[in-house]
Amino acid sequence: MAGVTTAPYRTMCRRFGNEMAYDDPNPAPGDAVTATGGLYVNQMITARALIEGHKKMLHSARYADGETPRSIQLYGTDPYWIGEGVKKLVDEGAVDHIDMNLGCPVAKITRHGGGSALPWRHHLLRDIVRAMVSNAGDIPVTLKFRIGIDDDHITMLDTGKIAEDEGAAAVALHARTAEQAYSGNARWDTIAELKQHVTSIPVLGNGDIWEASDAIEMMTQTGCDGVVIGRGCLGRPWLFRELTQGLAGRDITPAPSLHGVIKIMTTHLDLLTDWLGEDRGTRDFRKHTSWYLKGFPVGGQLRQQINQMKSRDQMLELLGTLVDEEFPAEAARLTRGHSHGPKRVVLPHGWLESREDPTPPGALASAFSSGG
Question: What is the pTM of this model?
Fold first, then answer.
Protein backbone atom coordinates (compact mmCIF):
# COMPACT_ATOMS: atom_id res chain seq x y z
CA MET A 1 0.00 0.00 0.00
CA ALA A 2 3.03 2.27 -0.39
CA GLY A 3 2.06 5.50 -2.09
CA VAL A 4 -1.62 4.82 -1.40
CA THR A 5 -2.26 5.16 2.32
CA THR A 6 -1.13 8.77 2.45
CA ALA A 7 -2.80 11.20 4.83
CA PRO A 8 -5.40 12.30 2.21
CA TYR A 9 -6.55 8.75 1.52
CA ARG A 10 -6.55 7.82 5.20
CA THR A 11 -8.77 10.85 5.71
CA MET A 12 -11.16 9.59 3.04
CA CYS A 13 -11.32 6.10 4.51
CA ARG A 14 -11.70 7.37 8.06
CA ARG A 15 -14.60 9.63 7.11
CA PHE A 16 -16.44 6.66 5.65
CA GLY A 17 -15.60 4.54 8.68
CA ASN A 18 -17.15 7.29 10.76
CA GLU A 19 -20.17 7.22 8.40
CA MET A 20 -19.84 10.87 7.49
CA ALA A 21 -21.34 12.26 4.29
CA TYR A 22 -18.78 11.65 1.58
CA ASP A 23 -19.80 14.68 -0.46
CA ASP A 24 -19.59 17.22 2.38
CA PRO A 25 -17.05 19.69 0.94
CA ASN A 26 -16.39 21.46 4.23
CA PRO A 27 -16.20 19.04 7.18
CA ALA A 28 -15.57 20.60 10.56
CA PRO A 29 -11.91 20.58 11.68
CA GLY A 30 -11.06 17.15 13.04
CA ASP A 31 -14.16 15.48 11.60
CA ALA A 32 -12.13 13.80 8.90
CA VAL A 33 -9.47 12.41 11.18
CA THR A 34 -11.11 11.26 14.42
CA ALA A 35 -11.25 7.48 14.29
CA THR A 36 -14.24 5.44 15.34
CA GLY A 37 -14.58 3.02 12.44
CA GLY A 38 -11.18 1.34 12.55
CA LEU A 39 -7.43 1.94 12.65
CA TYR A 40 -5.93 3.57 9.56
CA VAL A 41 -2.22 2.84 9.25
CA ASN A 42 0.32 5.19 7.73
CA GLN A 43 2.76 4.10 5.04
CA MET A 44 5.73 1.94 5.93
CA ILE A 45 8.95 3.63 6.97
CA THR A 46 12.30 1.93 7.47
CA ALA A 47 13.70 2.22 10.97
CA ARG A 48 17.14 3.18 9.65
CA ALA A 49 15.68 5.98 7.52
CA LEU A 50 13.76 7.24 10.55
CA ILE A 51 16.91 7.46 12.67
CA GLU A 52 18.96 9.04 9.90
CA GLY A 53 16.26 11.59 9.10
CA HIS A 54 15.62 10.52 5.50
CA LYS A 55 13.66 13.57 4.32
CA LYS A 56 11.70 11.95 1.52
CA MET A 57 10.67 9.04 3.73
CA LEU A 58 9.67 11.25 6.65
CA HIS A 59 7.74 13.57 4.35
CA SER A 60 5.73 10.70 2.88
CA ALA A 61 4.84 9.39 6.33
CA ARG A 62 3.34 12.62 7.70
CA TYR A 63 -0.03 12.71 9.42
CA ALA A 64 -2.99 14.95 8.76
CA ASP A 65 -3.55 17.79 11.23
CA GLY A 66 -5.26 16.38 14.31
CA GLU A 67 -5.11 12.79 13.04
CA THR A 68 -5.60 10.27 15.82
CA PRO A 69 -4.69 7.58 16.56
CA ARG A 70 -1.41 8.02 14.71
CA SER A 71 -0.50 4.57 13.43
CA ILE A 72 2.62 3.70 11.44
CA GLN A 73 4.28 0.60 10.04
CA LEU A 74 8.01 0.02 10.55
CA TYR A 75 10.36 -2.15 8.57
CA GLY A 76 13.87 -3.38 9.29
CA THR A 77 16.08 -6.39 9.97
CA ASP A 78 18.32 -5.24 12.82
CA PRO A 79 17.08 -5.21 16.43
CA TYR A 80 19.22 -2.18 17.24
CA TRP A 81 17.84 0.04 14.49
CA ILE A 82 14.28 -1.16 14.98
CA GLY A 83 14.53 -0.54 18.71
CA GLU A 84 16.05 2.91 18.21
CA GLY A 85 13.39 3.78 15.65
CA VAL A 86 10.62 2.86 18.08
CA LYS A 87 12.34 4.79 20.86
CA LYS A 88 12.60 7.90 18.69
CA LEU A 89 8.90 7.78 17.77
CA VAL A 90 7.84 7.26 21.37
CA ASP A 91 10.20 9.84 22.89
CA GLU A 92 8.97 12.46 20.42
CA GLY A 93 5.33 11.61 21.15
CA ALA A 94 4.92 11.01 17.42
CA VAL A 95 2.87 7.81 17.37
CA ASP A 96 0.01 5.96 19.09
CA HIS A 97 0.49 2.54 17.46
CA ILE A 98 3.36 0.75 15.70
CA ASP A 99 3.03 -2.19 13.32
CA MET A 100 5.90 -4.36 12.08
CA ASN A 101 5.92 -5.27 8.38
CA LEU A 102 6.69 -8.98 8.03
CA GLY A 103 4.52 -9.52 4.99
CA CYS A 104 6.19 -7.84 2.03
CA PRO A 105 7.09 -10.41 -0.68
CA VAL A 106 8.89 -7.96 -3.00
CA ALA A 107 12.29 -9.24 -4.12
CA LYS A 108 14.25 -6.10 -3.25
CA ILE A 109 13.03 -6.51 0.34
CA THR A 110 13.27 -10.29 0.80
CA ARG A 111 16.70 -10.57 -0.84
CA HIS A 112 18.02 -8.63 2.18
CA GLY A 113 16.20 -10.85 4.66
CA GLY A 114 13.35 -8.41 5.27
CA GLY A 115 9.59 -8.56 4.97
CA SER A 116 8.20 -12.06 4.61
CA ALA A 117 11.71 -13.58 4.67
CA LEU A 118 12.51 -12.39 8.20
CA PRO A 119 10.29 -14.76 10.27
CA TRP A 120 12.35 -17.75 9.06
CA ARG A 121 15.16 -16.53 11.35
CA HIS A 122 13.03 -16.91 14.44
CA HIS A 123 15.75 -16.00 16.96
CA LEU A 124 16.46 -12.78 15.07
CA LEU A 125 12.73 -12.08 14.91
CA ARG A 126 12.40 -12.57 18.67
CA ASP A 127 15.23 -10.09 19.27
CA ILE A 128 13.51 -7.56 17.01
CA VAL A 129 10.09 -7.91 18.63
CA ARG A 130 11.65 -7.69 22.09
CA ALA A 131 13.50 -4.49 21.12
CA MET A 132 10.32 -2.95 19.73
CA VAL A 133 8.11 -3.78 22.71
CA SER A 134 10.69 -2.81 25.34
CA ASN A 135 11.22 0.59 23.72
CA ALA A 136 7.55 1.21 23.00
CA GLY A 137 6.45 1.53 26.64
CA ASP A 138 2.68 1.96 26.66
CA ILE A 139 2.45 2.26 22.87
CA PRO A 140 0.98 -0.95 21.40
CA VAL A 141 3.11 -2.92 18.95
CA THR A 142 1.55 -5.31 16.45
CA LEU A 143 2.92 -7.66 13.77
CA LYS A 144 1.56 -8.43 10.31
CA PHE A 145 2.95 -11.49 8.57
CA ARG A 146 2.26 -14.26 6.05
CA ILE A 147 1.83 -18.03 6.33
CA GLY A 148 5.48 -18.51 5.50
CA ILE A 149 7.98 -18.27 2.68
CA ASP A 150 6.33 -21.18 0.85
CA ASP A 151 4.54 -24.40 1.79
CA ASP A 152 7.83 -26.04 2.73
CA HIS A 153 8.87 -23.17 5.01
CA ILE A 154 5.89 -22.27 7.20
CA THR A 155 6.54 -19.66 9.90
CA MET A 156 3.17 -18.31 11.03
CA LEU A 157 2.78 -20.31 14.25
CA ASP A 158 6.30 -19.54 15.48
CA THR A 159 5.85 -15.89 14.55
CA GLY A 160 2.53 -15.64 16.36
CA LYS A 161 3.94 -17.29 19.47
CA ILE A 162 6.99 -15.02 19.50
CA ALA A 163 4.74 -11.98 19.25
CA GLU A 164 2.57 -13.26 22.07
CA ASP A 165 5.51 -14.17 24.31
CA GLU A 166 7.31 -10.86 23.80
CA GLY A 167 4.34 -8.63 24.59
CA ALA A 168 2.91 -7.63 21.22
CA ALA A 169 -0.62 -6.27 21.42
CA ALA A 170 -2.01 -8.23 18.44
CA VAL A 171 -1.02 -10.12 15.29
CA ALA A 172 -2.43 -10.08 11.76
CA LEU A 173 -2.06 -12.88 9.22
CA HIS A 174 -2.20 -12.36 5.46
CA ALA A 175 -3.35 -15.86 4.60
CA ARG A 176 -0.97 -16.41 1.69
CA THR A 177 2.67 -17.46 1.52
CA ALA A 178 5.30 -15.12 0.14
CA GLU A 179 5.58 -17.46 -2.86
CA GLN A 180 1.88 -16.95 -3.59
CA ALA A 181 2.41 -13.18 -3.49
CA TYR A 182 -1.11 -11.95 -4.37
CA SER A 183 -2.25 -14.87 -6.51
CA GLY A 184 -4.91 -17.49 -5.91
CA ASN A 185 -7.21 -17.45 -2.92
CA ALA A 186 -6.31 -16.49 0.62
CA ARG A 187 -6.25 -19.60 2.79
CA TRP A 188 -8.55 -18.64 5.61
CA ASP A 189 -8.10 -21.99 7.35
CA THR A 190 -4.60 -20.84 8.33
CA ILE A 191 -6.13 -17.89 10.20
CA ALA A 192 -8.22 -20.35 12.21
CA GLU A 193 -5.09 -22.40 12.92
CA LEU A 194 -3.21 -19.32 14.13
CA LYS A 195 -6.17 -18.27 16.29
CA GLN A 196 -6.10 -21.66 18.03
CA HIS A 197 -2.35 -21.33 18.60
CA VAL A 198 -2.26 -17.72 19.82
CA THR A 199 -4.78 -17.35 22.60
CA SER A 200 -3.90 -14.36 24.80
CA ILE A 201 -3.83 -11.53 22.23
CA PRO A 202 -6.14 -10.67 19.31
CA VAL A 203 -5.58 -12.43 15.99
CA LEU A 204 -6.66 -10.48 12.89
CA GLY A 205 -7.26 -11.89 9.44
CA ASN A 206 -6.25 -10.46 6.06
CA GLY A 207 -6.80 -11.57 2.49
CA ASP A 208 -9.64 -11.44 -0.03
CA ILE A 209 -11.95 -9.10 1.86
CA TRP A 210 -13.76 -7.25 -0.90
CA GLU A 211 -17.12 -6.71 0.81
CA ALA A 212 -18.49 -6.52 4.34
CA SER A 213 -19.91 -10.02 3.91
CA ASP A 214 -16.35 -11.32 3.42
CA ALA A 215 -15.25 -9.85 6.75
CA ILE A 216 -18.23 -11.39 8.52
CA GLU A 217 -17.61 -14.74 6.84
CA MET A 218 -13.90 -14.69 7.72
CA MET A 219 -14.60 -13.96 11.37
CA THR A 220 -17.30 -16.65 11.48
CA GLN A 221 -15.17 -19.30 9.78
CA THR A 222 -11.91 -18.63 11.59
CA GLY A 223 -12.87 -17.14 14.94
CA CYS A 224 -10.47 -14.25 14.33
CA ASP A 225 -10.97 -11.07 16.33
CA GLY A 226 -11.01 -8.59 13.47
CA VAL A 227 -9.90 -7.99 9.90
CA VAL A 228 -7.20 -6.06 8.07
CA ILE A 229 -8.04 -4.43 4.75
CA GLY A 230 -5.54 -3.94 1.94
CA ARG A 231 -6.32 -4.06 -1.78
CA GLY A 232 -10.08 -4.21 -1.18
CA CYS A 233 -10.25 -0.51 -0.35
CA LEU A 234 -8.41 0.71 -3.45
CA GLY A 235 -10.77 3.13 -5.16
CA ARG A 236 -13.46 2.19 -2.63
CA PRO A 237 -12.99 4.15 0.60
CA TRP A 238 -16.69 3.56 1.29
CA LEU A 239 -15.77 -0.08 2.06
CA PHE A 240 -15.08 1.09 5.61
CA ARG A 241 -18.64 2.38 5.94
CA GLU A 242 -19.89 -1.00 4.73
CA LEU A 243 -17.67 -2.76 7.27
CA THR A 244 -18.83 -0.51 10.11
CA GLN A 245 -22.45 -1.19 9.23
CA GLY A 246 -22.10 -4.88 8.40
CA LEU A 247 -20.12 -5.83 11.47
CA ALA A 248 -22.73 -4.02 13.60
CA GLY A 249 -25.48 -6.07 11.98
CA ARG A 250 -27.05 -3.06 10.30
CA ASP A 251 -28.28 -2.45 6.78
CA ILE A 252 -25.45 -1.56 4.42
CA THR A 253 -25.66 1.68 2.45
CA PRO A 254 -25.56 0.90 -1.29
CA ALA A 255 -22.39 1.76 -3.17
CA PRO A 256 -22.49 5.16 -4.89
CA SER A 257 -23.40 5.61 -8.54
CA LEU A 258 -20.78 6.83 -10.99
CA HIS A 259 -21.62 10.47 -10.29
CA GLY A 260 -21.40 9.71 -6.57
CA VAL A 261 -18.00 8.14 -7.15
CA ILE A 262 -16.91 11.27 -9.04
CA LYS A 263 -17.90 13.39 -6.03
CA ILE A 264 -15.72 11.15 -3.87
CA MET A 265 -12.89 11.41 -6.39
CA THR A 266 -13.20 15.20 -6.33
CA THR A 267 -12.88 15.31 -2.55
CA HIS A 268 -9.88 12.97 -2.68
CA LEU A 269 -8.24 15.03 -5.44
CA ASP A 270 -8.74 18.25 -3.48
CA LEU A 271 -7.20 16.69 -0.36
CA LEU A 272 -4.21 15.52 -2.40
CA THR A 273 -3.64 18.88 -4.09
CA ASP A 274 -3.86 20.63 -0.73
CA TRP A 275 -1.33 18.12 0.63
CA LEU A 276 1.15 18.02 -2.26
CA GLY A 277 0.36 21.03 -4.42
CA GLU A 278 -1.71 20.90 -7.60
CA ASP A 279 0.90 19.43 -9.93
CA ARG A 280 2.14 16.65 -7.67
CA GLY A 281 -1.29 16.04 -6.20
CA THR A 282 -2.93 15.60 -9.62
CA ARG A 283 -0.14 13.31 -10.80
CA ASP A 284 -0.39 11.25 -7.62
CA PHE A 285 -4.15 10.97 -8.04
CA ARG A 286 -3.85 9.38 -11.48
CA LYS A 287 -3.14 5.91 -10.07
CA HIS A 288 -6.35 6.07 -8.06
CA THR A 289 -8.57 6.80 -11.07
CA SER A 290 -8.47 3.30 -12.55
CA TRP A 291 -9.44 1.84 -9.17
CA TYR A 292 -12.33 4.27 -8.68
CA LEU A 293 -13.66 3.62 -12.20
CA LYS A 294 -13.13 -0.15 -12.19
CA GLY A 295 -16.19 -1.95 -13.49
CA PHE A 296 -17.87 1.13 -14.93
CA PRO A 297 -18.36 1.33 -18.73
CA VAL A 298 -15.64 3.92 -19.28
CA GLY A 299 -13.81 3.44 -22.58
CA GLY A 300 -10.10 2.79 -22.79
CA GLN A 301 -9.39 6.04 -24.65
CA LEU A 302 -11.12 8.12 -22.00
CA ARG A 303 -9.33 6.23 -19.22
CA GLN A 304 -6.04 6.99 -20.94
CA GLN A 305 -6.93 10.68 -21.20
CA ILE A 306 -7.85 10.79 -17.51
CA ASN A 307 -4.52 9.20 -16.68
CA GLN A 308 -2.70 11.99 -18.52
CA MET A 309 -4.34 14.99 -16.86
CA LYS A 310 -1.94 17.49 -15.33
CA SER A 311 -4.29 19.82 -13.46
CA ARG A 312 -7.27 19.55 -11.15
CA ASP A 313 -9.59 21.43 -13.50
CA GLN A 314 -8.62 19.28 -16.49
CA MET A 315 -9.23 16.14 -14.47
CA LEU A 316 -12.65 17.28 -13.21
CA GLU A 317 -13.72 18.55 -16.63
CA LEU A 318 -13.03 15.17 -18.18
CA LEU A 319 -14.70 13.26 -15.35
CA GLY A 320 -17.71 15.56 -15.77
CA THR A 321 -18.34 14.16 -19.26
CA LEU A 322 -19.23 10.74 -17.85
CA VAL A 323 -22.89 9.70 -17.85
CA ASP A 324 -24.24 8.49 -14.52
CA GLU A 325 -24.46 4.72 -14.01
CA GLU A 326 -25.38 2.56 -11.04
CA PHE A 327 -22.43 0.88 -9.36
CA PRO A 328 -21.98 -2.48 -11.14
CA ALA A 329 -22.72 -5.32 -8.71
CA GLU A 330 -19.72 -7.31 -9.93
CA ALA A 331 -17.30 -4.39 -9.57
CA ALA A 332 -16.90 -4.81 -5.81
CA ARG A 333 -15.18 -8.16 -6.31
CA LEU A 334 -12.88 -7.18 -9.17
CA THR A 335 -9.24 -7.49 -8.18
CA ARG A 336 -7.51 -4.22 -7.43
CA GLY A 337 -3.83 -3.55 -7.02
CA HIS A 338 -1.28 -6.38 -7.06
CA SER A 339 -2.32 -9.67 -8.62
CA HIS A 340 1.04 -11.22 -9.52
CA GLY A 341 2.25 -14.63 -8.41
CA PRO A 342 3.06 -17.32 -7.64
CA LYS A 343 6.77 -16.62 -7.97
CA ARG A 344 10.05 -17.73 -6.47
CA VAL A 345 10.97 -15.82 -3.32
CA VAL A 346 14.36 -14.15 -3.57
CA LEU A 347 16.35 -14.73 -0.37
CA PRO A 348 19.87 -13.98 0.89
CA HIS A 349 22.45 -16.66 0.17
CA GLY A 350 22.11 -19.54 2.63
CA TRP A 351 19.06 -18.01 4.32
CA LEU A 352 17.11 -21.26 4.54
CA GLU A 353 20.08 -23.32 5.75
CA SER A 354 20.68 -21.33 8.95
CA ARG A 355 17.38 -20.75 10.67
CA GLU A 356 18.88 -20.51 14.16
CA ASP A 357 21.27 -17.67 13.27
CA PRO A 358 20.25 -14.48 15.13
CA THR A 359 22.72 -12.27 13.26
CA PRO A 360 21.11 -9.36 11.37
CA PRO A 361 21.61 -9.74 7.62
CA GLY A 362 23.42 -6.41 7.28
CA ALA A 363 22.62 -3.02 5.85
CA LEU A 364 19.73 -2.93 3.45
CA ALA A 365 19.83 -1.34 0.07
CA SER A 366 17.83 1.82 -0.40
CA ALA A 367 14.56 -0.01 -0.92
CA PHE A 368 11.50 1.59 0.61
CA SER A 369 8.77 -0.54 -0.92
CA SER A 370 5.85 -1.75 1.13
CA GLY A 371 3.31 -4.49 0.73
CA GLY A 372 2.08 -7.62 2.34
Answer: 0.91
